[in-house]
Sequence to fold (584 residues):
Amino acid sequence: MKKFSLALLTVVASFQLPAQTPFGQPEIINPANGMNIVSNTGQTFQSALSRTTTSRIPSLTGNSVPDAVKSPKSIIPEGEKSYYITSKDLIVEEDNSVFSLDQEAQRAAVLVKQGDDKVSLLCPFNLYPQHEDCYIDGVVDGDKMKFNLPVIIDEYGPFSFELSLYRFDPEEHTYLPVDDSENVLEVQIGENGALSIKTSDVTADEIDVNDESTFPEIVLGVTTNDLASGMILWFIYGTWNMEYTPIKLNTAPEGIIFEDWTLAQQNPEMKYSIPGWNRIAGVAIDGTDIYIKGISEYSEDSIIKGTIENGVATFSGIQAAGFCPKIDYFCYFLATSAILNGDSIEVLYDAIPLKLDMDMENKTMKSQNVMMWCVTNPETRSYLNMWFEPMWIANTPEHLNAPLEAPNLLGARNYSHLGSGYLLTYWIPNININGCVLDKSKMYYNIYFNGEILTLNKDNYPTLPENMTNIPADFNDGEYIANMMSDGMDIYGIYLQAENKEMYTTGVQSFYQGSDGVLYSSPLNLIDPGFYDSINGVYDDSGTAITEEFYTMDGVKVTNPTSGIYIRVIKMSDGSTKVDKVTR
Fold:
């Protein structure tokens, strides 16, 4: 069953790239979004394709997959948009002719009215979390909307996914496409704009999955098809009863201007430890009304609305904030209280108003609440982003012209003994010490190799457009430099394959072209961490130690270390180098 829930993804300090050189396209889970999407049944989307199946049945309509209408992706049609919360009963083919029932609620839906009775409806099914937006086109006919099927709603490798009406075939013990003349989806228009799909009169309570005679005769469903031949590989699931409940979202007055403010964490200990990274969110004030737009990267156009009184902006504790197109769910804004116990946060989920103390002279707003961006509804306690004591800082020249936040070394691996090179992983935040998110097109960084700034020569790094000393922060060639994260939490993997010398120290320094000149971060120049996961690297005891050297955390060699924390570099008899962090 391809039905997904949300859980918090824990961010670990020792981030490590996959051990492959060069990168190609390493698959990295994004800790910045705070989201880990898993299947309720433990199945991933791809497991449905890996089942032992054969091409059982050709399309009975005569329409091979290439001939079916293919819906454009990632393009929301222009027109008047209406938003809905949906619920639907599902019949699922878990294995060959083995069925189960399910019920899916709280999925989001969008209907776009384009005039002249033309409408576009977001596909009723979302196959997997990376599914791109897919709209099917139809027309209004009295109190119904009609959509011609079949429609190819997505492609994945050699497979396509076809949305169609299907009739249960007792001889084949599965659902097969209806004839072309019948393949028209009708959506009933009800009171107050509510919509419904009903293809069979049977109720879920009347269905026995062990008795095919009780199955709904016709369903709106999806099949996995072979892209080349058009053969149906698998009936995935279908619905015969689906309800659309309208929902109203916040909007700002027409013509209002949003200014760029940075949303950040006040508490420095929580700055990057929970999934609510610094990001730009628009703020607009209209009399005593205040609007904040784009709190979460998952719904950039979503708006929360509050009121201002005596220098305090107050927002209702729960607001239906917006549509999240990446996963076809609605997002809800939730303000709550929490208790900070050491490294953990106990969230109370009490839906209290969010109060922001406004300092308009310094252009900042601060709160003592916890702010969350929830999925589906706040009662699920599943969220995409969370801010502990959030604050907003206006992106004014005074706030922007400040030194950059210092980079960190997250991991390093040594492949030089294989004739390869060094794989380094840095976190280079595109924010300054005030917390403001910076324009990455104006930001650069230098790599330090044994204390000197390194120039990447195009002769040795052929995918680079030119020799690079000052590397643009938004540059990514996928071979030697990979930028894998989002604003405020950028992780850079750098593969140094042509540096044919031993590395003792490595570092990075970022800088930004501000309105008042170039702004730098403090330089990071650390001892080579032993090419393990982090500077806390654990290593085995093979080989014999020949030499032992000590360095400060800033990379300065110390002959006679006294009390303090040092990095110890041990040269082994087998030629390897081992490094750990010690306290004297």
About this structure: The chain has four domains: 44-247, 259-395, 408-527, 545-583. The first helix runs from residue 45 to 49.
